[in-house]
Amino acid sequence: MLKSRFFALVLALVPAVGFAAGKVQLQDAQIDLQDKASLQRGAGLFMNYCAACHSLQYMRYSRLAEDLELTPAQVESFLIKGDAKIGDVMKTGMAKGDATAWFGKAPPDLSTTARGKIGQEDWIYTFLKSFYVDESRPKGWNNTVLAGASMPNVLWDLQGIQRATFEPKAEGGHCALAEKDGRCITGFVVQEHERGRMTEAEYDRAILDITAFLTYVGEPARLHRESLGVWVILFLSFFTFMAWLLKREYWKDVH
In 3D, which of 37, 47, 98 has the Cα closest to residue 70? Predict the structure, then answer.
């Protein structure tokens, strides 16, 4: 019975591991949810660049203010757009019908996009760094992590305009990064006149902040769980030490 449960657990994890590893080379996000400044910057970037299309319908502005150590006045001034109130959930300002008409399908809610799959944080981080110009696409953009993504690169003014570099694909070979039109994409370049408002390091930091924010939104309780984890380990260590002393006291006469 125990062995069958073990194999069932392994099989349940296989799809998640496959998603994370798969054919996509994911970069390690290395987020720190205890870095409140990073979460605050990520919230600001999300509201400025993502919230016009994507909602966070399971998160309230009031919870955001409490967890990220922001005052209600700061949230209302810098994060809330339109006529939303501090107690409202974080909905997009775009009507679903308009979104469907403009994009063919309404952009998804991102409340839980960073939760539930192994490596999902790395996927988001890599995805937001992997847009490149593709003139064959209707909106002019493509992505090496999610080929044919309908989402354009809304952060292009920060990152600059990336253009893919190619090399012929070897017969029977595999492209390490991505494949397009029978060729391997080997990387990206940004021409001098197409640079964004941020340096590469600054943009990486911004994407890390957005990824950290979405990870927090996916599981807000994780903030408190991780902060409590240190104290739990210390308590267990102290309890183990006391148990060892008690055991030694009880058994000293036996020897």
Answer: 37
d(CA 124, CA 206): 13
CATH 1.10.3660.10 for the 20-248 domain, yes or no? no
The closest of 206, 177, 203, 180 to 190, measured between CA atoms, is: 203
pLDDT digits (tens, 9 = 90+) for 55-68: 999 999 999 999 99
Q: What is the rounded CA–CA span in Å between residue 177 and residue 162?
A: 15
Cα separation, 220 vs 227, whole angstroms: 12
d(CA 93, CA 43): 16
pTM value > 0.85: no
* Cβ within 8 Å of residue 92, ≥6 positions away: 51, 52, 53, 54, 55, 107
**pLDDT tens digit string along 66-102?**
999 999 999 999 999 888 999 999 998 788 888 888 7
The answer to whether residues 108 and 54 touch, using CB atoms and an 8 Å cutoff, is: yes
